[in-house]
Amino acid sequence: MAGEFDRHPYLLTVQDVAKNLGTDLDRGLTGAQVAQLQEKYPPNELDIGGAIPWYTIFLRQLFNAMILVLFFAMSLSFGISDWVEGGVLAAVIILNVSIGFFQEYGAEKKMDALRALSSPSANVLRDGKTQVISNSEVVPGDVILLKMGDTIPADMRLFEVMNLTSDEQSLTGESVPVEKVESHLDDEELGIGDRINIAYGTTVVRKGRGRGVVIATGMQTEVGKIAASTSKKNRKAGRSMNYKKYGKRQPVVGLAKRAYDFFGKFLGLTEGTPLQIKLSKLAYMLFGCALLLAVIVFAVNRFDIPTEVVIYAISTGIAIIPESLVAVLTITMVVATTVMRKANVVVRDLSALEALGGVTNICSDKTGTLTQGAMIVKKAWIPGKTIYTVHDSKDPSDPTVGRVTYADAEEDAAATEPEKRDYDQERSASALKFDVPDEKLKPKQKKHDGPEADMTPELEAFLLSAALCNLATVRQETEANADDRKWKTTGEPTEIALQVFAHRFNKGKKTIEGQGWKQVAEFPFDSSIKRMSVIYDGAESENSMVFTKGAVERIIDLCTTVGIGGQAEEMTDSYKEHILKQMDDFASQGQRVLAIASRPWDGKYQEKSSKEGDDADNALRQRVESGLTLLGLAGIYDPPRRETTPAIAECSTAGIKVHMLTGDHPATATAIAKEVGIIPHDLSTLPADLAESLIKKASDFDKMSDAEIDALPELPLVLARCAPDTKTRMIEALRRRNAFMAMTGDGVNDAPSLSRADVGIAMGSGSDVAKSAAKIVLTDDKFNSIVAAIREGRRMFDNIQKFILHLLTSNVGEVILLICGLAFRDQSGYSVFPISPLQILWINMLTSSFPAFGLGREQASRAVMRKPPHDKRRGVFTNQILVDMLVYGLLMGVLTLMTFVIVVYGANGGALGADCNKAWSESCRPVFRARATVFAELTWLILISAWEFKDLRRSMFALNPDSTARFPFFRDIYENRFLFWAVVIGGLSVFPVVYIPTLNTAVFKHVDISWEWAIVVAALVLFVAGVELWKMAKRTFRLLEDRAVVKGAFSQGSVEEGRRFAHTMSFSSLKSWRSFGRKNTGDSGMHSRSMSRSKE
Q1: What residues pair up with 156 in beta bridges, in sequence order?
Q2: Which of 129, 189, 308, 382 has the fewest CB atoms found within 10 Å of its own CB?
Q3: Are 812 and 885 in contact (CB under 8 A)?
Q4: To 5 degrees, how large is the angle CA 15–CA 18–CA 19?
Q5: Which ranges are annotated Basic and acidic residues under compositional bias (predicted)?
Q6: Phi, psi (degrees; rounded to nearest 5) at 780
């Protein structure tokens, strides 16, 4: 914090603050002072990491585990003067590193563009003149002028306030704007949210105006402190080297663990997503296997190691390394990133895409993510027991969309609270009933919303007060280059909601003031008394009118009567209880409730604010806000997005639990959670301990020890009044349960949890701090975009499994071929390799790569969101992948080995020539023809396996289960055109490689063939038959199947709220369970349920 403050500025008078900062409150800083301060303090910017430097990205790609293995093979090749092979390996390394570098660097550039979308400015007072400057140029001591809609540039001590409120939700999580004051405060223990004479950087002015002096900029602001805590590295447990605290052995233990962390991070074995760690382990395991194979090669040759033996050892090492894996993986992720960008998802870290496929829990903020982030009046209660309800409102800013109906209050309560069934009583012996679903027991009647609302004197009085006691504006404007007019709003969301409701009846503030109403006084909202009042003179009235709105409990104590005209009644204790009951009814539906009141002033209002101080003003306010008449209650809520509930249902089907972590009141959070399907409407259908654990206040959750949290039957699905520490503690609790979680958020207060979560997902409209802490940014802020990202992550994960199987199967086949080939000895006594090193590189880099790219572009399977998240401990290497790799690799290796034996021994009497590993000679013709045959066969087997691996279980000749065609093979394989042409062109490329003179003998060490093509075709048929038989065995005997989604006591997002799974079995429920398997499977069923929910 700037200046020499003995105490925090909120405790000091404005004069003391200005004195400490050396500024003039009337003229601001001088030009000379600004120049000095800009040299003393860094720019007013948050150090939130920004873009990753290009050299960091380059080094990260260069020291990838697979690249290090290729480096070793390249060095060995150059060491024995095999320049061709070493040069090819160098080209492979350059290609892999280049692809990864440019793709990740491009992604970072796109994120820079997203961060640069907004560049706010500040209105400052310098040298007695107002100037508009960039926020980064603001310095401590600057006097800032604020007005409605401004983004506050830095932390400020306010000294002039006029109805000023600021939205501090992004900082504190509090959804209600904070009313600001200018006087100093006395309590030294006040938290950030209660220091109401301080305006915080990055928050937004919702209404009013004011002036303040800057006390902190950049990383010294409260937002900057949160950003610093987000980026601060926390040392792992056990890494301390303090022997005084932990004993004499601790320096050695701590140093060893730090060394393990360093080398583990460098080698990619301890940090990264599950896939990154698995692939790093795979690379080093393959490296170990390559060394083992080299030892085997040397041992067979009795450790007599001339150049020929070294070349053979390098060949076996190259054969086991999938050289194109890094490039294929990176390009697949980049393609997925492009798809995601079109779906309003910006991926900052390519590895986050793979991590999405393993997400088991989503911790989501409520406001703006599950909900629209805009308030709307949903219900209004008017004395006389009438309730007005807004239906079908799709745009909170548009009063022309939707309709308003009215009903008797008792009828409305009956409609919103249906009779509850006592299942225990129904199962008793005296009243034996089965668990008949409600829709069967009581068929749905056609829903009647009630008659359209008409204007009444009571409603008109309510609207008059709601519109005039209001600082928001609602107007219709024509945008540039657009023909239609759109509704625009300014002000605080609660007041906007009331103003829009008044506009539905053509009673907006501007319309009423156009009829002659004129404001003469205002008593702004005071958080201590939770109300505001205005006084207006009417056009034809002899008396001024007082209009008041505020918290129900505060307003009704000031009222002496309820209603107007014939509906007027005296305010009694019993009537107050009735009003509070009505308020609770609205609150239970997720609504924030305000009371609207008014009274006539005796004559024209001519009172003036007192110069004697606050006491006189308070006395005047008490006179004004007394003897009021209650005109009604307004139920205001932040409507959930229409797509939220279907998205949550899809998460449930996919085995993902959704948690709501919000700063809202528990009743509001609970009601919204029920509405979107996070928790069931009727918690009584669940076991008592489970129902109690589903909803927690943050204060109660924070008081629990880790052991108590771990003992809960279910972690809370709703956490209300959340602080940043509560969110991070929730994430740690999930991690202790082996969950892999995604955290969504948009505010500064979400940044710590975004950085600590396995996958942090920030909103595009959120703060820069949140975006930089996250791995993924949603540009449209919608929860269903998260589900789309998870679906894409799963699709990519499945495709990664397919192309890893494709690449490693060929490696297994090549290794089997080469190891068995050690038995083929030429006239010099050296082993003759059945396939040359450059043939292996050609197959691994070119033949395998493009079909692998094609497999990476496969569409999502129909069941991608109907299976559980993948096991993060196993990653892509499931039992099915490992077994398939061995089965198909063995089949490939045996067929190619038998081909070499047939050509050399069957047709040429076993003539292996001399020095056929080095160069062409006529004595090597049988070996060279055999190599050409093996090369062509292995190439075609690898290519056809790509079509087989489009589905790991279904036959290649019937990939689509919904197809009615008699032979859909060609249609199915042509569906992925990139893969189709990769296989076709790859198959045709064999011919020039085999037949081009000199290239074939000098480089690939093979020669043209003729009758051997029959062997190639026969082996291809046998390979396809073997793969199809293995797939059929897996389907028939249900071998290596995926796990089923584990169903809990209820299904999130389900209209039926889990009764199908929660209730006791009976004959009728058995029948419904039988039909469940037929009716409720498949995408169509899921979509139909989603559509039915959206219509209701």
Answers
A1: 199, 214
A2: 189
A3: yes
A4: 85
A5: 417-427
A6: -105, 0
> What are the pLDDT digits (tens) for 716-755?
999 987 777 888 899 999 999 999 999 987 766 677 788 8
The pLDDT tens digits of the residues spanning 410-468 come to 666 655 554 544 444 444 444 444 445 454 455 544 455 678 888 999 999 999 999 99
Phi, psi of 408 (to 5 degrees): -65, 145
Centre a 10 Å sphere on the Cβ of residue 683 and count the other Cβ atoms it contains.
18
CB–CB of 469/605 below 8 Å? no
Burial label for 193, CB within 10 Å (0-12, 13-18, 19+), is middle
Handedness of CA 595, 601, 606, 608 (dihedral sign): negative
Least confident of 556-570, 852-866, 987-1001, 1068-1082: 1068-1082
Taking CA 534 as the corner, what is the angle to CA 531 and CA 537, rounded to the nearest 5 degrees? 160
Tokens of 623: 């006179």
Q: Is the pTM of this model over 0.90?
A: no
- Show Cβ contacts of residue 1038 under 8 Å, excluding neighbours closer than 6 positions: none
Residue 860 has pLDDT above 70, yes or no: yes
And the tokens for 200?
Answer: 């915080």
CB hemisphere CA count around 948 (13 angstroms): 24
Asked if residues 167 and 204 have their Cβ atoms less than 8 Å apart, the reply is yes
Radius of gyration of the CA atoms of the chain, in A: 36
Predicted confidence (pLDDT) at residue 380 exceeds the cutoff of 80: yes
Compute the residue count for the chain.
1096
CA distance 76 to 1022: 38
| Cβ–Cβ under 8 Å, residues 685 and 1062 | yes
Nearest to 223 by CA among 163, 184, 166: 166
H-assigned helices in 719-782:
724-736, 751-756, 768-773
Tell me the C-alpha distance between 590 and 569, whole Å: 29
Which regions of 168-203 does DSSP assign to beta strands (E)?
A: 178-179, 198-199
| Long-range Cβ contacts of 857-861 (<8 Å, 24+ apart) | 857/332, 857/335, 857/799, 857/976, 857/978, 857/979, 858/795, 858/798, 858/799, 858/802, 858/950, 858/976, 858/979, 859/795, 859/975, 859/976, 860/791, 860/792, 860/794, 860/795, 860/798, 861/795, 861/798, 861/951
At 346, which helix (H) or strand (E)?
A: strand 345-347
Q: Say which residues have a Cβ less than 8 Å from residue 991's Cβ, sequence separation at least 6.
A: none
What are the distances in angstroms from CA 207 to CA 41, 202, 257, 609? 31, 16, 55, 21
**Range in 150-154, 155-159, 577-581, 615-619 with the lowest mean pLDDT:** 615-619
Residue 165: strand pairing partners: 179, 207
- The 10s digit of each residue's pLDDT in 467-525 is 999 988 898 877 655 667 888 887 778 889 999 999 999 999 999 999 999 988 888 77
Phi, psi of 1024 (to 5 degrees): -60, -40
Q: Where are the alpha helices (DSSP H) in 527-572?
A: 552-556
d(CA 275, CA 876): 7
What is the distance between the alpha carbons of residues 500 and 449, in angstroms, rounded to a whole number?
Answer: 21
Distance of alpha carbon 543 from alpha carbon 606, whole angstroms: 11
CB 774 within 8 A of CB 762: yes
Angle at 361 between CA 359 and CA 363, to 5 degrees: 120
CB-based contact 382:631 (threshold 8 Å)? yes
Q: How many CB atoms lie within 10 A of CB 55?
A: 9
Give catalytic residue positions.
365
Helix (H) or strand (E) holding 474: strand 473-478
Sign of CA dihedral 668, 674, 679, 680: positive
